[in-house]
């Protein structure tokens, strides 16, 4: 499928999904026929622009325009609503991208970003445009402005919390679904139990007297916890959609759980319950995912560290054995034996340096975790530091076919910890040599406006957008077809050192187009030096 056809298909899917779910949402007691407490299109728009890029905004705008015109309002009023709907999705996706949101929602940070930036903040735009457009058209005159705005905002927020989260966790491949009979049976039992209990709680139409004992929604919670524990984010999202479907459709049934005076009030009460429950279940699933990740990282660390330390130790043992045999050989040594002994000792020294480097990385992680990283500031000429580092690595770079090209137009002088900055530059160049695919590496540095900027650019395989935040976490590396040595700590330590100096370490890359790492450092030390680790975004 060509790029143009794929793009057209994406536009068509987003447009059709938006219009179809908009018509569904407007069937639930829409205020003035346009504002409803159930608005799934907001979640579809947010997920589409976050996952597939903001270039899909025309599909959102067209869907919003058509959906609003279908309510019978003037075209100019529908255009105002569509602008608000579209801007809401654009701003929401931009904020999520800016702060490193992971659509898999595997971290507590991701839950907070989805709730705070998307569901609560960006939806203010749509609600405000909706209120303004309605006021100009004289819609919803019987409803207070605050009430009209709140209904619109709640509807959009629910779309982000329920629909967007469902799309996020299912859209990205992560793990293969288990089709084991017992697993499928468990899914079926959970679905049946959740549907049955939700019907009893929210519709309250059973003649069983035991139902009278169920006077709260708490009986649904154990089943939702079951879904989160056993089926992680995907299970929690699906379970919440199932409960939401039953709860929302029950608002029109006489004697339902939320027995407020009007269906409008019942919808708002139901939305509040669903919002609190959805946030709680997403938080639980994310906390469990973080715990599983920590356990996996520990096991992976033990495996990687064992391998990375064993390899140089084995080589060191062989070289020292060779040197010992040469030394113990009876009789005077000739020039060839002396040369062989010298080579073995030099190689042993290099292997020892490699071991020391690995151990230092492990010690740095320990210091960062404990907040004991100490910086010793001094006046450092960055151009001299770069020349020292490139001089040491130039032979290694040339051997891999990746010569280092340095461009520093003028002196760059700042107050930094020379050893730590040198460590960052070394790690960046070492990574470029590893992943540079035998192509030239460009290093540039300059100073301006009180800051120094150093960039290392390679022309290797590049880094996908999904991996660009992951690689700054400990023990993480870019997947390659051939094994690359290292503990996966260089970029993590580098970013922590940069932030401790009051600076940043970022990456710009696209698959197949190499990667550019940018180190920005203030020329003068920060007033307060931060040495405690920050989680990579």
Number of E strands:
7
Strand order of the largest sheet: 2-4-5-7-6
Number of domains: 3
Low-confidence stretches: 532-537
As a percent range, the share of strand residues is 5-15%
Order of helices and strands: HHHHHHHHHHEHEEHEEHHEE
Distance separating the two termini: 34 Å
Radius of gyration: 30 Å
**Class by helix and strand content?**
alpha+beta
For the record, what CATH class of the largest domain applies?
A: Mainly Alpha
Q: Outline, from the CA principal axes?
A: elongated
The major pleated sheet works out as: 5 strands, mixed
| CATH architecture classification name of the largest domain | Orthogonal Bundle
The CATH topology annotation of the largest domain reads as: Arp2/3 complex 21 kDa subunit ARPC3
Give the helix level as a range of percent: 55-70%
Number of helices: 14
- Average of pLDDT: 83
Explain what the structure shows:
- By secondary structure, the protein is α+β, with helices and mostly antiparallel strands.
- The protein contains 14 helices and 7 strands.
- The model is unreliable at 532-537 (pLDDT under 50).
- Helices cover 62% and strands 8% of the residues.
- It has helices at 3-25, 41-52, 57-69, 75-98, 108-137, 145-171, 181-203, 221-249, 263-328, 335-370, 382-399, 418-435, 467-470, 490-500, and strands at residues 378-381, 404-407, 413-416, 441-448, 451-458, 504-509, 515-522.
- A hairpin with a 2-residue loop joins strand 4 and strand 5 (451-458).
- The chain folds into 3 domains: 1-174, Arp2/3 complex 21 kDa subunit ARPC3 (Orthogonal Bundle), CATH 1.10.1760; 304-370; 378-522, Histidine kinase-like ATPase, C-terminal domain (Heat Shock Protein 90, 2-Layer Sandwich).
- The two termini are 34 Å apart.
């Amino acid at each position: 499928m060509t790029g143009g056809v794929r793009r057209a298909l994406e536009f068509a899917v987003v447009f059709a999904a938006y219009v179809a779910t908009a018509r569904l949402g407007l069937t639930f007691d829409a205020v003035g026929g346009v504002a409803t407490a159930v608005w799934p299109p907001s979640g579809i728009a947010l997920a589409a622009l976050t996952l597939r890029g903001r270039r899909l905004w025309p599909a959102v705008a067209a869907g919003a325009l058509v959906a609003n015109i279908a309510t019978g309002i003037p075209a100019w009023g529908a255009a105002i609503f569509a602008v608000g709907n579209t801007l809401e999705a654009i701003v929401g996706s931009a904020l999520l991208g800016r702060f490193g949101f992971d659509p898999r929602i595997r971290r507590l940070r991701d839950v907070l970003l989805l709730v705070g930036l998307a569901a609560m903040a960006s939806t203010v735009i749509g609600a405000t445009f909706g209120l303004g457009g309605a006021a100009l058209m004289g819609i919803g005159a019987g409803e207070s402005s605050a009430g009209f705005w709140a209904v619109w905002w709640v509807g959009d927020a629910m779309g982000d919390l329920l629909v967007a989260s469902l799309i996020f966790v299912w859209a990205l491949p992560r793990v293969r679904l288990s089709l084991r009979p017992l697993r499928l049976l468990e899914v079926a039992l959970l679905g049946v139990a959740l549907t049955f209990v939700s019907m009893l709680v929210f519709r309250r139409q059973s003649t069983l007297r035991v139902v009278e004992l169920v006077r709260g929604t708490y009986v649904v919670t154990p089943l939702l916890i079951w879904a989160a524990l056993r089926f992680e984010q995907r299970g929690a999202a699906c379970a919440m959609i199932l409960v939401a479907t039953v709860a929302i459709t029950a608002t029109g049934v006489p004697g339902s759980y939320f027995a407020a005076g009007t269906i409008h009030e019942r919808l708002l009460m139901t939305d509040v319950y669903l919002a609190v429950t959805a946030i709680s279940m997403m938080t639980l699933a994310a906390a469990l995912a973080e715990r599983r990740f920590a356990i996996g990282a520990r096991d992976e660390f033990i495996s990687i560290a064992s391998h990375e330390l064993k390899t140089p130790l084995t080589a060191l043992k062989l070289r020292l054995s060779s040197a010992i045999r040469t030394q113990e050989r009876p009789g005077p040594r000739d020039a060839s034996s002396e040369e062989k002994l010298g080579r073995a000792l030099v190689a042993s020294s290099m292997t020892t340096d490699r071991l020391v480097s690995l151990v230092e990385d492990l010690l740095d992680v320990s210091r960062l975790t404990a907040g004991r990283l100490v910086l010793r500031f001094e006046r450092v000429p960055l151009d001299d530091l770069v020349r020292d580092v490139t001089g040491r690595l130039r032979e290694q770079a040339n051997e891999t076919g990746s010569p280092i090209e340095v461009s520093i137009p003028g002196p760059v002088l700042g107050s930094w910890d020379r050893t730590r900055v040198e460590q960052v530059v070394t790690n960046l160049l070492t990574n470029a040599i590893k992943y540079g695919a035998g192509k030239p590496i460009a290093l540039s540095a300059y100073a301006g406006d009180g800051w120094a900027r150093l960039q290392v650019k390679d022309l290797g395989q590049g880094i996908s957008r999904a991996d660009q935040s992951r690689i700054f976490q400990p023990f993480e590396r870019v997947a390659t077809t051939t094994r690359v040595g290292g503990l996966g700590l260089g970029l993590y330590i580098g970013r922590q050192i940069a932030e401790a100096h009051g600076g940043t370490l970022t990456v710009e890359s696209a698959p197949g187009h190499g990667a550019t790492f940018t180190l920005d450092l203030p020329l003068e030390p920060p007033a307060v030096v931060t040495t405690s680790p920050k989680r990579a975004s």
